[in-house]
Amino acid sequence: MDRMNAKEVEYCKLCNKKPKSYTCPRCGIGYCNLDCYKSEVHLECSESFYKQCVEEELKSSESDPEARRKMIEILKRVHEGDIENDMSMESEDEEELDSDDEANLLDLETRLKDIDLDNPDQVWAILSDAEKQEFEALVKSGEAYKLLPPWLPWWTIHKKPLIESLDITEEEKHDKHETEYPVIIDVQPFNEQMMISPKIRFNIMNVIYAYTYIALYYNGDYLNCAEEAANTFLSICENMKENKIFDNEEDALESVVQNIKQNEHLSKDVETLSAFAEAGNSILRNPSKMQGTIHTCAALSELWRLLSEAQKEMTVNKHKKEKQLSTKHIQHNKKQNICLSKKIIFACLKKLEFYISWLKTYGKDMYT
After folding, report:
1. Backbone angles phi, psi at 23, to 5 degrees
2. pTM to 2 decimals?
């Protein structure tokens, strides 16, 4: 799958011993691992960067109690991890904690209780050095997001069948059929007089694979950072971004993979790439033959909602000096080449509506 040419090895600018694997999103320096990133020579940059992570996350959740609850949950789990680490290292550490230090370690929830969670400086100030370092490491590695409840992708949920047992309870009905399944948008009937290239199905595949990547990357929460997620989507979807036409499914998928690999901010490990490719294949080849292309139409409808929400965010943020982005990409959009505009979004929305309309009429031709 990987067709990229080998490049000259660049070494870590902090230790000069190992090949560079990452780039600091704040100062741009290349480094090899987390130890170098947190080393003394880079401490000032990493400390200020993660303080900004906390600030941005708290600011973006000022009106969202659920987001604040999730942040507290992450901090509490970080704290619990610190306690476990301290216990495992106790035999190696001759200096025992005094009673005051122990009390400080064990009462994170109490310390947060009277803190203004909308004030990032207050939250950051009550964290111990160990808690700050652990939180920094979790955010940088992406592990912080794994502490949140796992997202159940909607395409793993079967759509309600036409005939259903009357014995099923309302709760079972909700859990089995209704949970988070996207509503397919209404579109104009397809003009069957229009001549369409058979390659349209490969273009749709390119869009679907790009969608599954951002859906998994944002853990299903892409609508809450719509403008950023829309930028990410367009940066990896060449059919939407450049109206590129694909000749086969392999090229449609490979295009998304290569665009992901070329973006230094995006996760590109083997597990991530395999997961989004399998998810895209699951949507495109829905196991229930009776449902046809319903999953594909649902995914395109989700993209339609994402771009519509991004358009609204752009209007709201138009007069703001700084846009509130998720902690994944504090500086992400600054380095993207895409200039998201209402004109671009309008064109993409119309294309998505066209694809859905075509699928509703000729969905059976997707794999012929």
Report:
1. -130, 130
2. 0.60
